[in-house]
Amino acid sequence: MIRKVAVPVAALALFVALWELLVWANGWPDYVMASPSDLPQSYARFWGLFLTGAWQTLWRTVAGLALAVLFGLLLGMIMGFSRTARDGLYPLLVGFNAIPKATLVPVLALLFIGQHDFNTVMMAFLISFFPIAVSVGIGLSTLEPEYRDILRSLGASRFTIFRKIALPKTLPEFFGALKVAVTLAFIGTNLVEIVSPHGRGLGALFLSGQTNSNYPLMFAVLIALAVLGIALYYAVVALEKVFAGWAERPQG
Amino acid sequence: MTDLIAISGVRHAYRTKAGPLPVLDGLELSVPEGRFCAVVGPSGCGKSTLTRLIAGLMKPDQGEVRLEGRRVTSPRRTVGMAFQNPVLLEWRSILDNVILPLEIVAPRMPRAERVARAEELLDMVGLAGFEGKRPSELSGGMRQRASLCRALVHRPSVLIMDEPFGALDNFTREDLWQTMRDLRARERFTCVLITHDLRESVFLGDQVVVLSGRPARTQYVLDVDLPEDRTIDILYDRRAGDMLHLLRDQIRIAQGRDDPPAHTGSDLLPGSAAQGLTTPGAARDAGGPGGAPDGPARKTAPDGATRGAAR
Ligand SMILES: Nc1ncnc2c1ncn2[C@@H]1O[C@H](COP(=O)(O)OP(=O)(O)O)[C@@H](O)[C@H]1O
Ligand SMILES: [Mg+2]
């Protein structure tokens, strides 16, 4: 248990120390690269903005991810249960996923002019539903027939079989995908925040640091984003432990 | 006594990319209530297909499957199934795995009653004390025991098993045969067991049905004329030995091997064992070229097979 906390903390401390050393050794001024010791001032000065920005980034990411989960599950179920749907949808999905999402920012902005919150949530959703849909689809379509037959032979409905067997059985794959999706959704949110003029959230704070040539602020935002990203990721890990903890094998 | 399972004239083909694949053709089977029917046959001949037809998971192209006198058109709650893969749900405890069918069949049964029923069975198969364990914490043999409990928890009238002990080592398998025998003595159910182990079929079966190679038809039916309370030792008895030889020869025929059997039926089947032989498939073969489908057995059917029919 101590190891579990001590090792990451030590790694973090080492990373910060190396960073500080690098900046100090090269004598970089803070408009080239800020050093960790510059950051506390930025946080102190802009703490209120950091809090509101983090909140905006957070809720829009989570909203986008929630949409991605709903839509991804639905799509995954359709692809998992119908071969035809799978054959038809798969190329479409892969093609869509291959589109660089940055190109969607102006498209969304023109489609829904001025709806900044909506656009941000949409982007978080669009960028993150793919892994969920694919993993649920594969999980369901590879369910061994015996698993279905133990309930089907009792006359259970398709929905009962899905609820009692197929869904819980695909939870480990689902959470694996959700870990990827949460990071993607986060990137999607930030992308829109940074690219949009008059944006909100941590991304907008980054942009204002840039326009004001406040480099320590920019770095402080990057660190805040990293922290938020880690928090989101581990929130998913915690959910996974609760809902799919059974899939973890005791390590020998 | 009525036949709890009655299958007649069943034909079935799978539709595959390379065209229809006939799997069953001329399958006859009748199992009286409370009896144990073991089914053996070459691998890939259609045994699992047979279990799916009995369970109502599929409908045959032709012919009919009757369960408790009524034609099977869809799954029934009076059926229990077990497979080679125990298919336990890893996110449930052993107890909750066993209870699963009750959640479907008796959704209003109080939890305490379900637990009591599950514990009764777990106790019978020697899993008392393992209720709270996860499936991955159990050995293969124990998982298969739990799977049997789940198949029986809702008191089905028919238990259908598809090579349930096939993946176990020999000694574990023999333990499970005895568990199966004890379960039958306590609970009343009719049983269809698919197996590729002839010793298993003779130890557990009241009758052993040999299926021909694909497309499978009923090639041979052996009535196992051994006492009910069998022990493993009985397999080393001469009567059991004779039956095993005879089944081995039948399997060879089913596989369509042309090499002559090592034994001819006549010197291996003295009175007692031969008395119980009935062979509808062979009888039809013996009926001459009157439209019986060509099976590999026709060419090589030895005396033993037709003789049983003649009696
Ligand atoms: N769903 C299916 N579609 C097409 N072919 C199948 C299907 N299920 C089984 N088969 C084929 O039918 C034959 C009989 O299968 P099966 O009943 O599983 O045989 P057994 O259990 O005796 O080994 C095999 O050749 C198998 O490949
Ligand atoms: Mg099989």
UniProtKB/TrEMBL annotation, chain A:
- Gene3D superfamilies membership: MetI-like (1.10.3720.10)
Among the Pfam families in the record, one is BPD_transp_1
Q: Localized where?
A: Cell membrane
Organism per entry: Wenxinia saemankumensis
- Lineage, top-rank taxon, reads Bacteria
Topology in the membrane? Multi-pass membrane protein
CDD domains tied to this protein: TM_PBP2
Similarity comment: family membership: Belongs to the binding-protein-dependent transport system permease family.
Which is a Gene Ontology cellular component entry for this protein? Answer: plasma membrane
Q: Does the keyword Membrane apply?
A: yes
First-listed, main subcellular location of the protein, grouped into a coarse class: membrane
Looking at the record, the residues that make up the ABC transmembrane type-1 domain are 54-236
Instruction: State the name under which the record lists this protein.
Output: NitT/TauT family transport system permease protein
Checking InterPro entries in the record gives:
MetI-like (IPR000515), MetI-like_sf (IPR035906)
What does the UniProt keyword field contain? Cell membrane, Membrane, Transmembrane, Transmembrane helix, Transport
Automatic annotation (TrEMBL), chain B:
Question: What Pfam families does the entry give?
Answer: ABC_tran (PF00005)
Instruction: Alphabetically list the UniProt keywords.
Output: ATP-binding, Nucleotide-binding, Transport
Q: What is this protein called?
A: NitT/TauT family transport system ATP-binding protein
Q: Where is this region: Disordered?
A: 256-311
Coiled-coil stretches? none
Please give the InterPro entries that the UniProt record associates with this protein: AAA+_ATPase, ABC_transporter-like_ATP-bd, ABC_transporter-like_CS, ABC_transporter_ATP-bind, P-loop_NTPase
User: Is ATP-binding one of the keywords?
Assistant: yes
